[in-house]
Fold these 2 entries.
Entry 1:
Amino acid sequence: MAFTLRNMDRADIPGVLPLLTASFPCMVLTEDALRWREDHPHPGFADRRILAVDENGVPAGFVRAQVLRSPDESGHLKGYVMLLSVREASAGTDEIRTALLAEAERAARADGATLVRAAVCGEGVQVGGERLAALLRGRGYTETSEEHRVLGLDLNDLPEPPPVPDGVELRPFTEFTEDPRPLYEVDREATMDEPGERQGEEFMAYEEWLHTVWPHPLTDLDVSLAVLVEGRVVGFTAYASDRGTRMESMMTGILAARRGRGLAGLAKATALHRARERGIRFAYTDNHADNAPMLAINTWLGYRVAGTDRVLARPDDQGGRGPGA
């Protein structure tokens, strides 16, 4: 099939959404969310969205190249190749996949990346993921230790939430619209020690968080819950939803001093029940393979593994910090 590569623009969004949702069946995404991100670029990243379009101008493939603008502790600028999607019914899918990967690598290097990583998922999470993994390995990519398990849950099968301890309250995010700063502080602290290769990276400033995280149109402020102990916010569980039948976990975090009391499980179970009451049927999440406490909570809630999400590294990056860096 004849195709050309070009940058995505706002007018392409109606054609890109079905491509992405077909390629990533566990993803929660809407046209409004794609438009919002196009209109609100994240200042912490150089971000490119690249399309392969057929002779009729219809999207046949998509890839995102993202480069962190701040160097890591070893001085490298990390680039990520993500969401590589191909219209599987098209002829020449392998050619499209190869061309998109090469263009994303080039774009990441052009935007300053000194390390390039590529995200790839198993077939239950990314249609064509195994073929992409084979392509990456054929180009010399090797697996790092960065692995997430993608989990799915039918909300018809939920355990009852545990009782709320004395002194603990759960409040929806809708009660924080005037001042979400307490949620930001938990997000900042809890994210800093989350497992993964980005652990310890400098967290964004509050003003940046207000611009790029808090107002995202997928954030479900009614389902997401803050955890308060004696009136102080000490944790939260936050969710994105399509306001229809699907939701996805964005972040669950409890301040270190308050962990081990069952607060994360309480918040998540209560939020999932709220979601079910509002008509949501399916929930998805992903956890780093080393995050045993959260994996245990999600197993108790009834989540089951849909597939894995891995990060592979370019061969010319291995002289830096090496696999698993």
Entry 2:
Amino acid sequence: MLPSRLPFLAAALCAVAFTDSAPARLGETREQCAVRYGQAVAEVPALLESATGTAYQKGDIRIRIEFLDGKAAFISFSRRGLRAEERQTLLELNAGPLVWNPPGEFLGRMCWTAAGNAQEEARHASAYQAVETNYLDLASDAWAKAMKAQQAVQFAIKPRPAAPDGTVVPGTPAPATPAATGKLEGF
């Protein structure tokens, strides 16, 4: 009888371990995040150019947050061995009043979307593993749209090698730019 209760007990313990008084994590201010996760351990580069990045450590979970307009817009939870039930708890805690759609797979990641409504913007999440560390990334719709626009601009300004038929080869790095050798004339 006891082994059948272990999954429920583990899920309940995870819920207690991650439960706090505030209902949502995305959208919190830097001060609210400091109360929730403790003193920041480092300022880190943000993926989104218009955001600022901060890292926290709570227990053995590393939390990397990007703040956009003073609010947590991207949160990455990482730990070696982050379990599926812990990931589910973190998803639920960050859904706010929204509901995550069933996950789909995209480029080796499990992905979720919580459709927005009149009061709340949509939220996005993805889970993946890299070098024995498990990640759960959560993003506000504003952050996701800004990141998509930023990547589109970066892609447009960085030349990519072309295939023999003239098409750009996806995923190839931009070639190194040779050093300038002469004066620009006629500009």
